Amino acid sequence: MLAERKNIYNTNSMKPTNNKSLLHFVFDQMNKLDNGEITVDAAKAQASLAKQANNALMYELKRVDVSLKLAEHNRDTAKIELRECELINPNV
Questions:
Q1: pLDDT (tens digit, 9 = 90+) per residue, 73-82?
Q2: Helix (H, G, I), strand (E, B) or coil at 79
Q3: How far is CA 57 from each of CA 1, 20, 48, 79, rounded to the nearest angstrom?
Q4: How far apart are CA 48 and CA 77, in angstroms?
Q5: Are the CB atoms for 29 and 38 separated by under 8 Å?
Q6: Distance between CA atoms of 2 and 43, rounded to whole angstroms?
Q7: Fewest CB atoms within 10 A around its CB: which of 29, 60, 77, 82?
Q8: How far apart (Å, rounded) are the C-alpha atoms in residues 83 and 41?
Q9: What residue spans of 9-92 are helical by DSSP H?
Q10: CB-based burial of residue 48 (10 Å sphere; 0-12 exposed, 13-18 middle, 19+ buried)?
Q11: What is the domain partition of the chain in residue ranges?
């Protein structure tokens, strides 16, 4: 169990995530809950994590939308840039 926990922080083991994989995870967890394979508390914790992942995906989609709108705006008028907030070191 401890080895599995350490693996959480290994970025090489991370899988790409999209809405389809999140829905698959959630429905799989619902089946496990129905079959008694996980507890209600475990299901709640995993649902919370799925919600956070979904929020991150929505942020990415909204950021792309704003970038596209800014690109269109910048063709016609004064240039406006989207602040880069995803830097590793925000002080740079």
A1: 888 887 777 7
A2: coil
A3: 29, 12, 14, 27
A4: 43
A5: yes
A6: 20
A7: 77
A8: 39
A9: 19-34, 40-76
A10: exposed
A11: 16-92
